[in-house]
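Appendix C: a fully annotated inverse folding record. The material below is reproduced so that readers can follow the format used throughout the book. The structure is listed first as tokens, followed by the designed sequence.
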């Protein structure tokens, strides 16, 4: 079993300037992910995918500007990266997309997730966390007011509310077979994912300034 991990860390971001390189305890945020995947000792190859040279040891090639656009899907990035390694004679059985903005994870999370994925490699595995409270309790805005999104579910006993999960943006494990095909689209990979549930604290992902401030508060409390 040959495994590749890709850390997508392009130089530009919209909501937070240079989001992938924000300092957390004086260390660029992407390095938390890098250190975790290295400590896990799972991967035959660790690749930082960026349009800028960040870490020569883990960047055998740079991502082209055409794959750094806002509309570029990470599935396209995986596809292109796998083909670049194939040109170098390296073919992988599985690929992990490890996001650079999940500093609360630990190496053990990657180990456990990989073990679960490899029990059923026909489906991708995705990191998720549970909505708490359930979205059965969700409310939506109506002018100056808010109202239950679903009145029947809203007034049920909370113990009877369904469990819902969200993608934490931490990591995804894939079988590489479909990525080696000529064309790759986000919606033709899978509609079913193996869930790897992580805690609310570990699920903190940095997309907005509010997320970043929240992370800094958690780290202070910790």
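Designed amino acids, in order:
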């Amino acid at each position: 079993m040959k495994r590749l991990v890709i850390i997508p860390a392009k130089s530009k971001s919209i909501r937070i300037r240079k989001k992938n390189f924000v300092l957390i305890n004086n260390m660029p945020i992407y390095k938390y992910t890098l250190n975790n995947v290295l400590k896990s000792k799972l991967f035959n190859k660790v690749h930082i995918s960026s349009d800028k040279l960040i870490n020569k040891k883990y960047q055998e090639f740079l991502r082209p500007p055409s794959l750094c656009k806002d509309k570029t899907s990470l599935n396209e990035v995986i596809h292109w990266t796998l083909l670049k390694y194939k040109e170098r004679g390296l073919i992988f059985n599985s690929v992990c997309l490890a996001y650079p903005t999940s500093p609360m994870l630990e190496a053990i999370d990657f180990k456990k997730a990989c073990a679960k994925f490899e029990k059923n490699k026909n489906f991708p595995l995705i990191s998720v966390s549970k909505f708490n409270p359930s979205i059965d309790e969700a409310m939506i805005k109506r002018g100056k007011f808010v109202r239950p999104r679903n009145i029947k579910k809203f007034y049920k006993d909370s113990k009877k509310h369904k469990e819902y999960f969200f993608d934490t943006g931490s990591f995804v494990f894939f079988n590489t077979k479909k990525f080696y095909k000529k064309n790759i689209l986000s919606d033709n990979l899978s509609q079913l994912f193996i869930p790897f549930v992580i805690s609310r604290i570990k699920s903190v992902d940095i997309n907005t300034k509010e997320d970043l401030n929240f992370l800094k508060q958690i780290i202070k409390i910790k």
